[in-house]
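Hi F.,

I've been meaning to write this up properly since the lab meeting, where we talked about keeping a consistent format for the predictions we share between groups. The idea is simple: the sequence comes first, exactly as it goes in, then the structure tokens exactly as they come out, then a line or two of notes. No screenshots and no reformatting. I'm using this chain as the first example so we have something concrete to point to.
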Amino acid sequence: MTFRLAIIGRPNVGKSTLFNRLVGKKLALVDDQPGVTRDRREGEGRIADLVFTVIDTAGLEQGDAASLSGRMRAQTEAAIADADAILFVMDARAGLTPDDRHFAQLVRRADKPIILVANKAESKASEAGVLDAFALGLGEPVALSGEHGEGFGELYDALREALPDKTEPAEEPPEEAPRVFADDEDGTELDLAKPLRIAVVGRPNAGKSTLINRIIGEDRLLTGPEAGVTRDSIGLDFEWRDRKLKLFDTAGLRKRARVIEKLEKLAAGDALRAVKFAEVVVLLLDATIPFEKQDLTIADLVEREGRALVIGVNKWDLIADRAAKIRELREEAARLLPQVRGAPVVPVSGATGEGLDALMKAVLHVHEIWNRRISTARLNRWLTAAVDQNPPPAVSGRRIKIRYMTQPKARPPHFIIFGNQLDELPTSYERYLVNGLREAFDLPGVPIRISRRMADNPYDRKKR
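Output, unedited:
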């Protein structure tokens, strides 16, 4: 049986470092500057045979409810309400502070099992701070170091004692055998049992967090008029029409030359990792200033990573002549993004909820295309007609010959052509094949990869 564990404490006590240690990955951004974490972030934590959901939270700060610190605190309070137990973290090196005492009262009122953690306890200088922690009245502190991985055996025992009914190890799911398709069989690599991973990316202040909050139906992500509110890439589990999804909110991506601060560099790197991890990427544009150069750069990144693309046009409620605007945007997308020709362009509004169904349908549709596998027989019937209509050019008096084509894998669709002198095949002819495949087999909005294979020439002295 699993359980949910929230990491709570004032800023800069090492909550995100502890979170990363528990999940075994550097998921949360970590920096010496206080207040790096803003949204609450979830991950699968492990200590020995315990498997649980761990929630990283923003540092508890006092502030007006409408301010950024007040909105961050509201997210932390929501994490406390959602957790089965609380890890209350204090800094053993700094010792007990008035803020620790104040926020200890907050977690005590939650009426949930509390484990007091004295973090940064790797040196003798922290021993006095560990003793000070007893004054909080939250029981015996667990002295550990999230950075160095010390003291987690004691934390394991504390979790067992705090949650005796929920600390059973989770069973590992059995591994599935890889799918195999016959040459004359169309197929798909789509697995409906696994959550569809969707990353929402775009420039700062495009409304990504607001849109995701509207999709899931709750104020799960921190939003506000300030640009750059989101820093960590936050993954959220969600179901839409009985389909399991995992939505990733990401930090806004600016031009690299404008990214100077260390924290923004870390946040941008986290957003790029979310793109690599996703299957479908929703590129969110601002309807009032669409298709800026940075939008095109992000779309090109998505194509290079081989992810399916959906273009969402947010803030649609601010547009007056909508019919003319959407026609113009689709023409612009076809002209500016030929590498993902046919990618859906869907108008949405995170503020009003308009267009969300159309957006999710487009996401599921391009994901199905991204997983599609075309039979070898159909491919070669098409290839014969395509080559007859427009033969490859001749090189040094010898015409390039394309004999055969197959699709060994999808995600994205990847095709291999076999023939002679394919290393001399012009890029323009490869584009002709890609566009023909996209049109003949209905493959809009997904990158298409083509590899070349040639038989060895036994009379070629250069290869001897």
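Notes:
The longest helix spans residues 262-277.
The domain at 187-372 is CATH 3.40.50.300 (Rossmann fold).

If this format works for you, I'll send the rest the same way.

G.
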